[in-house]
Amino acid sequence: MATPLLDVRDLHVYYGEIHALRGISFQVDAGEVVTLLGNNGAGKTTTLRTLSGLLAPRAGDVRVENQSIVGAAAHAIVLRGMTHVPEGRRIFNRLSVAENLEMGAYTRADREVTQDMERVFVAFPRLKERRGQVAGTLSGGEQQMLAIGRALMARPRLLLLDEPSMGLAPVLVEQIFETVRTINGQGVTILLVEQNAAMALAIADRGYVLETGRIALSGSAAELADNPDVRRAYLGEA
User: Which of 71, 65, 18 is closest to 46 using CA atoms?
Assistant: First the structure.
């Protein structure tokens, strides 16, 4: 059996005395799109923040290609091939679009950064039009494109996406998800946290449902989309 790209084992995370993640375990194989579903407060964002080194687990392990990254600094985890597009975009508002993208490549010393920026501009033509514009003046959709593009500049093998559709108009949501599908088709594995469960399941291979810090359900995207509990809780069906 092939080693999973990401292997999360019995992860426990606390905020002070609050037990936010209660022993979750899951895997992501190379080439997959895996989605984490759940209501607000279920632990989805906490999971991504822990994986990317922004939070330290109290117990459990996170392994990338069978090497533990627990205790590694966030920039070291980027060097291991995992980048994080956080909830709320978190772009550098006072820097230009191009400067934000350059910041995404800060761990790199190779000569192909300019080529990769051009690849981002192919994926997001609107960013090319605004390459010199101050990022804080972009629309919400453009800022989300920039946040994803910045993460791609590190050449990740695994991309963590936290609520990429939040606050966007429906037409932009479709565009963002189509781009996510394209990125995956280019060989980037994706772990997706998304409130829009229907869109997430439409592009995912598999999924996990988190409830109060525990994994309550798992299965293929099709299985979860057909599950009556998932349909009632996350797809808006009575």
Answer: 18
Residue 46: pLDDT over 70: yes
Q: What is the pLDDT of residues 79-128, one digit of tens each?
A: 999 999 988 778 888 999 999 999 988 877 788 888 899 999 998 999 99
Among 54, 52, 75, which residue's Cα sits nearest to residue 191?
52
What angle do helix axes 113-123 and 97-104 make, rounded to 10 degrees?
A: 120
Q: State which CATH number among 3.40.720.10, 3.40.50.2300, 1.10.3720.10, 3.40.50.300 fits the domain covering 1-81+156-238.
A: 3.40.50.300
Kindly list the strands in the beta sheet with 67-68, ordered across the sheet, starting from the edge strand earlier in the chain. Answer: 18-28, 6-15, 59-64, 67-68
The conformation of residue 3, written as its DSSP 8-state character, comes to P
Average pLDDT, integer, range 203-231? 95
Question: pTM of the prediction?
Answer: 0.93
DSSP strand E in the chain: where?
6-15, 18-28, 33-37, 59-64, 67-68, 82-85, 158-162, 189-193, 206-211, 214-220
